[in-house]
Specification:
Elements lengths: L6 H12 L9 H8 L14 H5 L3 H20 L3 E12 H6 L6 E8 L5 E5 L1 H11 L17 H21 L7 E8 L13 E11 L2 E10 H4 L3 H5 L4 H4 L4 H10 L5 E4 L7 H5 L17 E5 L2 E11 L2 E9 L2
Antiparallel strand pairs: 1-5, 2-3, 2-4, 3-6, 5-6, 7-8, 8-9, 9-10
Helix pairs in contact: 4-7
């Protein structure tokens, strides 16, 4: 245990300091350590999350984009995708792009009616993994690490994924404004991309994408000037007065309406035993419980929803709905 000075010892110590018998100067070693310190300006200190403070609640919009885009990729490629935001940081545009030596696919986005647009960057690992998946490779294979830039043909294949991302960005920003994002161009060289001045500030959201054994990153790069007009709307995003008018319910309803469902036009059905099925041969006749003069039953996910009559349209078989099942 450390010794605690008594009152008399403290008085003696103070007296020795006043009389100069004890020096308060630092020795050479301590002096060098002190001089190695870096001076700071207390009036210019920024919060560690200053970019989040300047653009409040923007992380909520990006997290919503994660969920919507993961669902879109899952439906499009029939693989189970997960997307999580791993960071939200502020950078100088030129420095951030210089650090991307092999960025993969760089999508230049128009964010109408917002100015300056944005960038969506698939890193090299994700770009090549997506190409393999779109061309039919198994997700159980490890990620490719090719030391080259994407070709023009490969960029064109990936264009669908980035175009879909624009639609999902529109849905993510729907609570703030009616946005019409679109993919202007795809690049494979960061030096050829410029959406703002080199020293302009950009807000970068980084996302980790996983599918099977493969993974990679997406970077969404927004110039600060693009998001600044939305700052007040973002600040009010979670207020009670605006929550009651929120379009979260509308977003969920829209997403549910995009879920795929099987629709079957059923003319008749028959029940057979396993033995009867095994005995079937080519040319056998099966008699269906079906009245050719009665309307067809239209099933949605095995549930009767409509009635219809069969026919043709433009040379193709078709059905015309005649009623709704009760």
């Amino acid at each position: 245990m450390e010794q605690i000075l008594s009152k008399s010892e403290i008085a003696d110590l103070l007296k020795a300091i006043r009389e100069g018998r004890i020096s308060l100067d630092l020795d050479d070693k301590e002096q060098d350590a002190f001089l190695a310190c870096t001076s700071i300006n207390l009036f210019q200190l920024t919060r560690p999350d200053s970019e989040l403070f300047r653009i409040p609640n923007f992380d909520i919009i990006l997290d919503l984009f994660c969920r919507i885009y993961a669902t879109s990729l899952t439906n499009l490629l029939q693989r189970n995708f997960t997307i999580n935001r791993v960071s939200l940081e502020s950078h100088e545009f030129q420095k951030f792009m210089t650090d991307k030596h092999s960025p993969g696919a760089i999508g230049i986005l128009d964010m109408a009616p917002l100015k300056y647009g944005a960038l969506m960057i698939f890193d090299a690992a994700l770009s090549f993994s997506m190409l393999e998946i779109m061309l039919g490779a198994s997700t159980e294979l490890g990620s490719l690490h090719l030391n080259r830039r994407l070709t023009t043909i490969e960029l064109n294949i990936l264009k669908t994924l980035l175009s879909d991302a624009c639609t999902d960005l529109d849905k993510s920003f729907a609570q703030l404004l009616e946005m019409h994002a679109s993919l202007i161009k795809l690049e494979n060289n960061a030096r050829l991309v410029s959406i703002v001045e080199p020293d302009a500030e950009v807000i970068v959201g980084t996302f980790m994408v996983k599918v099977g054994e493969q993974s990679g990153q997406i970077h969404l790069v927004f110039p600060f000037a693009t998001l600044e007009p939305l700052r007040e709307a973002l600040k009010q995003l979670l207020n009670i007065s605006t929550t009651s008018q929120s379009t979260w319910q509308e977003v969920l309803e829209d997403e549910i309406q995009e879920v795929a469902a099987n629709v079957t036009a059923l003319s008749g059905s028959i029940t057979l035993s396993i033995n009867q099925i095994l005995q079937l041969n080519e040319g056998d006749m099966l008699y269906l419980d079906y009245d050719p003069n009665a309307p067809l039953k239209v099933l949605v996910e095995d549930k009767l929803k409509f009635y219809a009559i069969p026919g043709t349209h433009n040379g193709k078989k078709a059905i015309s709905l005649t009623g709704v099942a009760g």
